[in-house]
Design a protein that fits this description.
This protein is mostly helical and 207 residues long. It contains nine helices and two strands. Strand 1 and strand 2 form a beta hairpin. The chain is globular and about 50 Å long.
Length: 207
Amino acid sequence: MFGEASMTHILAPLLILIHGDSCCLDKAHELILGVNRTNIDEAEYAAMNPGTSWSEDHSLNSDQDMLHALIHRIEGDKIGEGGYTGYENAKYWLVGGGKMLEFVEENIVQDKMKEYVLKRKHLCHLDLIPSEKRTYSIIAGGGKKRDVVVNGGNFDFFRYHLMCEARYGGHNNDMRDWKDDWSSSVDELQMAEIDVLLKYCMKQDFD
């Protein structure tokens, strides 16, 4: 499912994330975007000058988009790309960033998170697998918003994201039904998410 994603693009930034400080977060972000010593000047120019071909030249697949979203979610309320918070940018990358997708592309994390929740009755009350489609509003660049859809029967990454944001005190959270006793369940799901990424990308890279 990770296709041609290499260790550099998936496993390396994930391991750096797990190490867990702000410098590691920046390095993981650089790696997922394809930044290295030979192109760092080009990358820095692209970051400050929208309209370059950087995103087309360093496109991400759906699994890399999910890890990119995770990196921004960990940034939290810190202002980053485009002048948006990490939480806002995370939602942008859940649906492919500049690819402007209407839905979350099928990927191993989504499938395995659904499987994980369905096997654990104590997580069913979180309503993470809707019976009908849900619509969310996210940033679309240039200060604009657009709607994206989670289809019924799929793991709802946007609701999960909002739960993570509420768990850690995001300032602009839209989670209306958050309950403090959900915190341990959200922590459990985040560990499951990391576990899925680690197990699958290590299998992919070392098989």
